[in-house]
Design goal:
The protein has 360 residues and is an alpha+beta fold. It is 29% helix and 18% strand. It has a single domain (4-321), classed as Jelly Rolls (Sandwich). It has helices at residues 4-9, 23-26, 32-41, 64-79, 92-106, 110-113, 136-139, 170-195, 202-208, 286-291, 347-354; strands spanning 50-52, 82-86, 127-129, 146-153, 221-229, 241-244, 250-255, 261-264, 270-272, 280-284, 301-303, 311-319, 326-327, 345-346. The chain has an eight-stranded mixed sheet. Helix 4 links the parallel strand 1 (50-52) and strand 2. Helix 4 (64-79) crosses helix 8 (170-195) and helix 5 (92-106) crosses helix 8. The longest helix is centred in the middle third of the chain and has 26 residues, at 170-195. The chain is globular, with a radius of gyration of 20 Å. Residues 356-360 have low confidence and may be disordered. The protein binds 2-oxoglutaric acid. 2-oxoglutaric acid is lined by residues 225, 227, 241, 253, 260-261, 301, 303, 313, 315. Keywords: Iron, Metal-binding, Oxidoreductase.
Length: 360
Amino acid sequence: MARVEALSMSGLSVIPVEYVRSMDERQSLGDAYDQAAASWSTAGCQRIPIVNVAPFDGADPSSPASAAVVDAVRAAAEDWGVMHVAGHGIQDDLIDALRGAGMGFFGMPIADKEAYANNPAAGILEGYGSRLAGSAGEDGKREWEDYLFHQLHPDARADHARWPAHPPEYVPVTKSFGERVSELAARLLAILSLGLGVPAPTLERRLRLSDEEVAVEDDLLLKMKINYYPPCPQPELAVGVEAHTDVSALSFILTNGVPGLQVLNSAGAWVTARDEPGTLVVHVGDALEILSNGRYTSVLHRGLVNRRTVRISWVVFAEPPPDSVRLRPLPELLVNGAEPRFEPRTFRQHLENKVLKKKD
Ligand SMILES: O=C(O)CCC(=O)C(=O)O
């Protein structure tokens, strides 16, 4: 399988046809730096909300400081489905170390990274890969990126043999980051529950426990995907990650500071995410949209590429267990004649039905 990094390094000026997106999709593509400049300079341009969750006190959720956080997170999740989260409690040096470890892996020669190659055709999804876009069945288009994908948390589920042995700090640093993200996910789910007017533990319980409310072994599962987008000579024709919503409950994104992430706002315009130091981008995914009966929006987003710089993003998907939990709108929200907007389904069923669809 050809790696996009090798293509990029070959110095080609015209990209292979399988990376050229449809005419329709190309209308809104372009170099990520140009799109960022245009998006950020527009007078009155829309900006993804920044929410500081540090003042939220789980022991006193109705204090004015906690209530203000709940309100801000609720509004961002309803209006945008995405927010920059500040005050997340993950130390800067751990975040720097995570970035360093991922860059250390992608800095290795391609031949060395191949030792970790995945094989989706054989059902081996974890590892180093370059994939056909999700719409491959429809138009066979590829995405301009290579990636590393693996289970992250809980540790018992992670196969460290599939994690990079180089650099040596990759495993301990990435593992610690997973533990911190797991705590942050729990905190945000508590805030988001209160935003729906239900008790703080509700969303996490519904994502982790089966219908019978018996404690199942499964935790919220975290999966790590590091996207490596090499420079692209024709960014107006290609896309790094095509437009999609995440199937997860929540997704957490860090980058190397290079622009490329775009989200579709409620007016139907693509907004380029800024680099907001000290924050993590958090997306609402499909699982949370279903539980909230559509109150929280699973955000449509994509990754653009640019001509000059490598972009790297670290995405952690927080997902319910595949089979033991039935995702359905919270019964607490189905009052006063409110109809469920989603049919019950397991996470696996949702995933399988979604494969070729951007939003369902
Ligand atoms: O690179 C990004 O910022 C977003 C990547 C993404 O959406 C994905 O990998 O699913």
